[in-house]
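Sat 14:20. Reprocessing the chain from the morning session after the first attempt stalled halfway. Input below, unchanged.
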Amino acid sequence: MEEKELILISEEYKKIEGLLHDIGKDFIDEYLYDIDRAGIHSYRYRTKHPEHLIEKIQRKKQENPEKFAGLDHTNYHKFITDLIGIRVFFLYREDWIHFHRYITSQFENNPDIYVVDRLNDFDDDINHYYIAERPKVYKRAGDSKIYDSKEIEVRSEGIYRSLHYIIKYKGYYVEIQGRTLFEEGWSEIDHDIVYPHNTDDEGLKDFSKLLNRLSGMADEMSSYFRKMKEERENK
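Finished this time. Tokens:
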């Protein structure tokens, strides 16, 4: 993509960045502020930094030029689904199902309107709130079987662990990622040190994998602790 077009995208995005921040806050207030109702431990949200948006567009167009061929400054928000990003956190991995059933009950979740073509399938009705892609979870190979493929698409791809939801809300996509507190700790460190600029550094990647395994063990231990507590209470 030409530098001129990237500059235009950045300029257009900066015009709506404040609006996106407000939309994210509205989403939090309406659906996540009551953490007990949402079945989560906590949450946080952000809008994408303009520089990170441009970096992502360049990377995506390089990785999949056909899929992102039509992207420009007038429609980039139809291709990039995490301009508004929300993370929800669980104390225990098994608690994912409570949030999953909650969020899928709050929004229309019809496979017939899942987005396939980013341009042609985009719904311009800002009052139509719906889940735009089938919810999915990425898990690490060897993880305990806690996800039901009837409830959610399960993908075993490397060391990445996270639930993913794309929701159309007030005219824009909102991406929700769900993970445990331990997984979030690993993810934050990995993104600070490895991803996306040092992915070719084998030494850093090895240390990140080690930290990932430790976070996985911590989640396993946490679940075991809770199970022990429940067994003692039921005696």
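The longest helix spans residues 202-233.
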